[in-house]
Amino acid sequence: MNAEIIAVGSELLLGQIVNTNARFLSRQLADLGINVFYHTVVGDNPDRLKNAMGIARERAELIIFTGGLGPTKDDLTKDTIAAQLGKQLVLDEEAMTSIELYFEKTNRVMTENNRKQALVIEGSTVLKNDHGMAPGMFLATADNKYMLLPGPPSEMEPMFLKYGQAAISGMSGNQAKIESRVLRFFGIGEAALETKIEDLIDQQSNPTIAPLAGDGEVTLRLTARDDDNGTAQALIDKVEAEIMDRVGEYFYGYDETSLMLELSKLLKIKNLTLSAAESLTGGMFQQELTSVSGASSLFKGGLVCYSNEAKIGLVKVNPETIEKYGAVSGECAEELAMNAAALTNSDIGISFSGVAGPDSLEGHPPGTVFIGIHVKGLPVHSEKLTLSGSRTAIRKRAVKFGCQIIINRLSETRK
Amino acid sequence: MNAEIIAVGSELLLGQIVNTNARFLSRQLADLGINVFYHTVVGDNPDRLKNAMGIARERAELIIFTGGLGPTKDDLTKDTIAAQLGKQLVLDEEAMTSIELYFEKTNRVMTENNRKQALVIEGSTVLKNDHGMAPGMFLATADNKYMLLPGPPSEMEPMFLKYGQAAISGMSGNQAKIESRVLRFFGIGEAALETKIEDLIDQQSNPTIAPLAGDGEVTLRLTARDDDNGTAQALIDKVEAEIMDRVGEYFYGYDETSLMLELSKLLKIKNLTLSAAESLTGGMFQQELTSVSGASSLFKGGLVCYSNEAKIGLVKVNPETIEKYGAVSGECAEELAMNAAALTNSDIGISFSGVAGPDSLEGHPPGTVFIGIHVKGLPVHSEKLTLSGSRTAIRKRAVKFGCQIIINRLSETRK
Residues of B with CB below 8 A from A284's CB? Predict the structure, then answer.
């Protein structure tokens, strides 16, 4: 089965909001084994909605509409679809009662246009709205299935999960099971990674291999189908093993994770604490580290040393180090890392010194980054990176490299 | 003129990413006075892309494609469009040189598939990519105009602003001039702001008033049309004055700015330096401050004190203060702010202590935030905020309040 998602709302075409509903529904449909071939966004205009619906009927079996179920004049999804299908709108008593209750509960006076929200297309299955007023609908004709969902994600998402999914599963019969797994890589470009697994991508059928690049990372989504979940998982395992043989050194995690999250997990397992002294990154590493709740068990505090004065005054770097090697140097980065750990009594210290741009610094071009890393019991160490991109991109990638360097350094201690 | 935006990429249909490009371009086109009637998303599949392109040709004059310009096998936007238009792909020497330079600069070996990125549709105007490798294109046929832009927003947005916009403006002839201005507010909710200017919104026609809320801020976009730019500006001035009369106290800046940018400008004008000691925000304030190039003239460094140990050890807070009042207190925040300034020899010190959640701390519920502010020559001061939302939302809003508090405090010194 394949599907199209049609979002109705001029606010999307004006760029006032972004179509997160399409993302949510696409993920859900993928999990149900339904291929989404198109997303469409159309404004609050009956003719253009009719046009979009006509096109979707020809190319999609399941059509999901979001938005346009509210009480105002703009809200015309139901009316337009009903008219196209030659159906009437009828009052749903249960929806009407729940709308009245809603107004009672919130001590507001119900205006007449709110009654409109209780009208549903005749013959449709009503999908209850537990988080708002407008109910959804599911309707099957000889050629297509239609689902109408409200626009606000806070209403749409729970409605789909609780009632919509079941309506779709009920109609799709005994479909093949879909399993998918995302492999995350850092430190290798998309083209380079794809070159290394080109033959696997060319042969792909089950599982499929979908690469995606973003924010300096590359992910591969492996999706397998089989009547049996276990077999689908085994198909993925096999391809994953082949991929890991080729590019496993850049792999860092599965599905929804990040380098910082993986680092945090590792530190918790090893019961280690971490501190940082950040010049180039200005606090970005520590901010990301503390964005996860529970960071307090592995992070006490750290320093931001944007100027040489702060490197010397706050982080106690020897002025001679800066004089002799510069602030943008491995020597300075190593001292910053050691001192960050010492000043906070932490097991690990990391530092970032470099040039975010746009101007050069101490003769180094933008993108030159030194990361210092001190792990208790190991010799202090630094790495030089040459990164490209905007100021923000350089800082973000430096933070990711920092995470990766610590993870690698901690793996070495196991050897 | 009307437009359709077609995003190409299976990752969108799988729900891996959300189509923010459509939002960005819709806003930009609205400013150019171009109506966007449809957004379409299609996967990396030549037949379905052909289908989407065929539909768009019938219903839109300007068609903008995003995505599918990269080096991998998936990337087929150029090939498909060229084939549909009966055109060849030709090598763009300038793009090729810049791709080679990119690899040279980053010390990476260029794989053969990267050459593909330098191919452009014959007869098109090449749009340079200053932030990545794949160039964009603009092409006019008898019936339609086509623009091809890369998928990553970090490449697409600057390309459109620097080169794409001009290509479109050049073709659109003598249209009415569009002027628009964004007013930015912080510290007031969208509904409250809208209520205060409800009559202005109801009467709007030229200029139009479009409110938008996000990240704790509310913006009003005023857009006026006239044959003459000056008249359009004057129409905006008039409505702006009426709005400022009502809600001016929450206004902080125009167009693409931020509270942090406004704070940075103010500090530069007044030639003041700033430091921070961050508990709750974990470095977010300093990271944002240093995200702007040139921050080094007003920021030397600061501290992150996530634990009481770091508040005492790094920021030299008197242990008795924490014992007596708690770390989440005005007293502790004030001492942190004073010490941050003193330790870095800065004119201003700010601190953030509070509860980001999900758990309570020292008996305070999540959302309790104390901001300490020390300005040289003024008595130290703290403010208690009660914020709501997720962990990240609380931290972000605390940083914004911090900026606003400093801006207000510095205005008082003028009085």
Answer: 283, 287
Residue A15 in contact with partner chain B when CB distance is under 8 A: yes
B166 touches chain A (CB under 8 A): no
- Cα separation, B322 vs B329, in Å, equals 8
- Residues in chain A closer than 8 A to B301 (CB atoms): 303-307, 309-311, 313-314
pLDDT of res. A71: 79
Which tokens sit at A42? 């159309």
Q: Which of chain A's residues have a Cβ under 8 Å away from the Cβ of B114?
A: 191
Element (H, E) at B218: strand B217-226
Please count the structural domains in chain B.
3
Give the structural domain span for B182.
Answer: 177-254
Of A287, A296, A367, the CB nearest to B287: A287
Do residues B320 and B403 both lie within one domain? yes
The SS3 assignment for B38 reads strand
Looking up residue A320, the CATH number of its domain turns out to be: 3.90.950.20
The C-alpha atoms of residue A183 and residue A195 are separated, in whole angstroms, by 16
**Do residue B243 and residue B127 come from a single domain?**
no
Which of B122, B136, B127, B135 lies closest to B90, judged by CA? B122
Do B274 and B250 reside in the same domain of the chain? no
Asked whether residue B228 falls in the same domain as residue B369, the answer is no
Report the distance separating Cα B221 and Cα B219, nearest Å.
Answer: 6
Tell me what pLDDT residue A174 has: 47
Taking CB atoms and an 8 Å cut-off, how many pairs form between chains A and B? 282
**Tens of pLDDT, residues B108-126:** 788 888 888 999 999 999 9
Q: Express each pLDDT in A126-179 by its tens digit.
A: 999 988 889 999 999 999 999 999 998 888 998 998 899 888 877 655 456 677
Q: Is the ipTM of this complex over 0.85?
A: no
Same domain, yes or no: B103 and B48: yes
B156 vs A: CB within 8 A = no
